[in-house]
Design goal:
This protein is mostly helical. The longest helix is centred in the middle third of the chain and has 104 residues.
Length: 223
């Protein structure tokens, strides 16, 4: 009887601790899933794994105690009917706890896998956005550079046109001044005309002399 009482109290204590640890385990896992922080860097994963290990260890102890109670229950003459029902109840609680732990582990694993998948998708989206933004900035830089080059070329063209305008104005002024000078000195025009006339006359005389010399030379050769 005393052996039963000891196992019964031990089983009740383990069941209470298991239920408390399982609640903490579920709450911590839920906070990990909802949290946007890195699980590894915050240390939450270590606490979650420690609780999971403690639950597995408690479940093993519960199974061992229930096995001992089942051995006692195999001899109905040693135990009263309420004790037999209590042993059966402990067995049912063990099965419920084992099933609940497996279900919680599966739910947490699925939730973490989904969270990791969503995190990976977000990272891929962020990387794509960053790459697209960099490409747009680079393209914007090339466009701005082309605009600056175009502005420089246009500025040079405007400066060149302005320089041509200044030179044309300067030449026009020189021509006007030359015309004014010549108009105020009529003798210069006559002198220039006489020089041109003498040059034409000298050219004619020179051409006649050269032609006569050629004819004399040809007639000398034929003789």
């Amino acid at each position: 009887m005393s052996n039963y009482d000891q196992l019964h109290r031990q089983c009740r204590t383990l069941e209470s601790l298991f239920d408390s640890k399982l609640t903490s385990y579920s709450q911590l896992a839920s906070s990990i899933v909802r949290s946007k922080d890195d699980v590894e860097s915050t240390g939450s994963r270590e606490r979650w794994k420690d609780l999971e290990s403690e639950l597995d260890e408690m479940l093993s102890k519960l199974e061992a105690v229930n096995e001992q109670l089942s051995d006692l229950g195999s001899d109905p003459e040693l135990l009263s009917p309420p004790m037999i029902r209590s042993i059966q109840r402990h067995r049912e609680v063990l099965m419920d706890n084992s099933r609940e732990l497996r279900r919680t582990k599966t739910s947490i694993k699925n939730a973490l896998d989904q969270a990791n998948l969503l995190s990976g998708v977000r990272n891929d989206i962020d990387a794509y956005r960053s790459s697209a933004a960099d490409s747009l900035l680079a393209e914007r830089g090339r466009i701005d550079s082309s605009h600056r080059m175009t502005d420089d070329v246009l500025q040079q063209a405007y400066e060149t046109r302005s320089e041509f305008d200044r030179q044309r104005t300067s030449l026009a002024g020189i021509n006007n001044r030359m015309a004014q000078v010549l108009s105020t000195m009529p003798g210069i025009n006559n002198l220039v005309a006489m020089i041109k006339s003498r040059r034409r006359r000298d050219s004619i005389i020179m051409g006649v002399v050269i032609g006569v010399c050629i004819l004399l030379l040809i007639s000398y050769i034929w003789k």
